[in-house]
Amino acid sequence: MKIVFIEYPKCSTCKKAKKWLEKNNLEFEDRNIVEDTPTEKELTEWIERSGLDIKKWFNTSGLKYKELNLKDKLLNMSDKEKIDLLASNGMLIKRPVLVSDNGVLIGFKEDKWNSLK
How far apart are CA 111 and CA 59, in angstroms? Predict the structure, then answer.
C-alpha cells in the first residue's frame, strides 16, 4: 500500500502522527506541506475521496487563516475558490494529511488511522 504523509515538520500533531506511522511499520512518502504544497488537482481529488466538507480542510487555528479573516470569507466562496486558496498556501491546510489506497485522512486521530492498517 502506498502512503503519502503530508506534514509541517514543526507541527506537534504531525510529529505524533509520524511516530505512529513508524511505530506501526508503515512505509510512507514524507512531504513538506509548505515546500511542496498540494496542487489544486490533488486537493480536488483528496477532498472528494475524504468525504469531508471543504471547510474541514482549513487549518482554522493557523495564523494565516485568522490573518485573512477566512471564517467569514469562506461563507461566500465557491468550492473552486476554496480549493484555489488551499493550494496557494500550505499553512492554510489542516495537517497532517494522509493519502493512501484506503482513503484520505486529515488531522491525526489514532482510531481513524488504525483503519488504514
Answer: 21
Class of domain 3-114: alpha beta
CA dihedral sign of residues 81, 63, 104, 27 = positive
Residue entry with cell 499553512: 91
Report yes or no: 98 and 113 within 8 Å, Cβ to Cβ: yes
**Phi/psi at 30 (nearest 5 deg)?**
-95, 130
Does the model's pTM come out above 0.85? yes
Residue 87, pLDDT score = 98
Q: Where are the domains of the chain?
A: 3-114
Residue 4: phi and psi, rounded to 5, are -115, 125
30 within 8 A of 7, measured Cβ to Cβ: yes
For residues 79 and 15, what is the distance between their CA atoms, to the nearest angstrom? 30
